[in-house]
Design goal:
There is one protein chain. This protein has 475 residues and is mainly alpha-helical. It folds into 2 domains: 215 residues, no CATH class; 199 residues, Lysozyme (Orthogonal Bundle), CATH 1.10.530. The protein contains 15 helices and 2 strands. A two-stranded antiparallel sheet has the order 1-2. A hairpin with a 5-residue loop joins β1 and β2. α1 crosses α5, α9 packs across α13 and α12 crosses α13. About 8% of the residues have low confidence.
Length: 475
């Protein structure tokens, strides 16, 4: 006999969708089964996390620890700057002693005292370089931490972008029927649409944020590269100063040995070593950006620039002299590999076009291995964006239209104009200290204080040697 099966639960209850889970259709157990919509919950949690990050993410940084770290470094920086200021004052005193003995005339006693004061000043300069290196090293550490923080922030924003894009992709590929079937009510459907629109709008903001962080990261890395380059340059100057001390000591010992304390022998030695005007005129003058000419030719360009700007010719020559940059020849690269792509390349291409020359026919200073951009042009070593600032003033003086950074007359005048502005910015100093400050600004811009007693001192010392040569020629 056939028995009709008993229906335990209706296949469709009132208020239950025919497309719902099977657990609502048949339940053979004597207890109730509760199923959680994990997929829907996970989507909701992901959406909440994305929105929370987009809205509140920037507030979650450890502000207190950053402030504490910054305060500590600010205190160290102030201590180092005070020590540097004290050393600068002492070096200025020794420089005054050197100048005093030099002005007393060329006698044996004053020469020995001058050499002793020069040695003491050089030793202080080495201490100053060591302190500056410590300061730069601290700045490098801070910069590296900032780079790591920025990179982590970029990674977090990339993750948010990926989740947002994935959510948008999934929702945009659903058909209208699928959207209606996956939402239990019309209100839920419109809520999902609203969430999607919010994510899309937030995604736009996150894209801008990531782009801004990326630009900040590039800037941080370039600044770190500049600081590393500064540290390496300062170490090179440190070695140079030590060699100068050894040479000065040998000079002193030689004077004492040859003269054996007798003034007449010292005066005879002085006459033998003094340069003649013919020697000075024929000596080669090597330009910082490459190339050379006789000292007499270089002096004519410098004196023309001096008459137009008021900056003394000896100082202009010292800045343009290759020796002032430790003998570095810096004009060996093409613009594609060396220049800042947005700041300098467009200006450079416009410049060479106006001059009617091929951009590939000239070389510029190279970028260093840490990523500091080069691109400095000609004897004055101006980067294109800086040359653009001075080109009109150069043209007014030289008559060149347009002026060229590779034309010696224009380059000498450009250097004199920059030094004139730098001397004005160094109004707190006077005499040789003012020129030392201006030379440091010419070399390092806003970082000039690091190079006051390195590059700046080297330029001033070279200018004094050139001034002696000029005085001999004028006499």
């Amino acid at each position: 006999m056939r028995i009709k099966p008993r229906i335990l639960v209706d296949l469709q209850k009132t208020g239950v969708s025919p497309f719902s889970s099977r657990s609502f259709r048949i339940n053979l157990g004597n207890f109730q089964i509760i199923r959680l919509p994990l997929v829907r919950i996970s989507k909701a949690l992901t959406l909440s996390a994305v929105i929370s990050y987009l809205v509140f993410g920037s507030v979650l940084a450890p502000i207190d620890s950053q402030h504490s770290f910054a305060a500590q470094n600010e205190e160290e920086r102030q201590q180092l700057e005070q020590q540097l200021a004290d050393l600068e004052a002492q070096m200025s005193q020794y420089q005054s002693t050197v100048d005093q003995y030099r002005s007393q005339g060329k006698n044996l006693e004053s020469e020995i005292k001058r050499l002793n004061a020069q040695i003491n000043k050089l030793n202080l300069q080495i201490k100053s370089i060591n302190l500056t290196l410590t300061k730069v090293s601290n700045e490098i550490d801070i910069n590296q931490k900032e780079i790591i923080t920025t990179e982590n922030e970029i990674d977090r924003n990339k993750l948010v972008l990926a989740r947002s894009l994935q959510s948008i992709y999934i929702n945009e590929n659903l058909s209208l029927a699928e959207v209606l079937l996956t939402n239990p009510s019309l209100a839920a459907f419109f809520t999902s649409v609203s969430d999607l629109m919010y994510i899309q709008e937030s995604l736009r903001g996150t894209l801008f944020k990531v782009q801004g962080l990326f630009n900040d990261l590039l800037e941080d890395k370039e600044q770190l590269a500049i600081k590393k380059s500064d540290a390496e340059t300062l170490k090179a100057y440190q070695l140079s100063q030590r060699l100068t001390i050894d040479q000065t000591k040998k000079e002193k010992d030689s004077v004492l040995k040859v003269t054996k304390g007798q003034e007449s022998k010292y005066q005879e030695l002085l006459k033998q070593t003094q340069k003649t005007a013919a020697q000075i005129r024929s000596r080669l003058f090597e330009l910082l950006g490459g190339g050379e000419m006789t000292f007499e030719e270089a002096l004519k360009f410098a004196q023309f620039a001096e008459s137009a700007t008021g900056v003394r010719a000896a100082l202009i020559l010292a800045v343009l002299d290759r020796e002032s940059a430790l003998g570095q020849n810096v004009g060996r690269c093409t613009y594609q590999k060396a220049m800042h792509p947005t700041r300098d390349v467009p200006v450079f291409l416009a410049l060479v076009s106006s001059l009617g020359i091929s951009p590939d026919s000239v070389t510029v200073s190279c970028a260093n291995r840490d990523g500091v951009y080069g691109g400095a042009m000609g004897p004055a070593q101006f980067i294109p964006s800086t040359w653009k600032l001075y080109s009109a003033r150069v043209a007014d003086i030289t008559g060149s239209n347009p002026p060229s950074p590779w034309r010696n007359g224009d380059a000498f005048v450009a250097t004199a104009l920059y030094m004139k502005d730098a001397l004005k910015a160094c109004s707190n100093y006077s005499g040789l200290s003012k020129e030392r400050c201006a030379a440091a600004r010419y070399y390092a811009g806003s970082r000039w204080s690091r190079y006051l007693w390195t590059y700046g001192e080297r330029v001033v010392a070279q200018a004094e040697r050139f001034q002696k040569d000029i005085d001999i020629l004028n006499s």
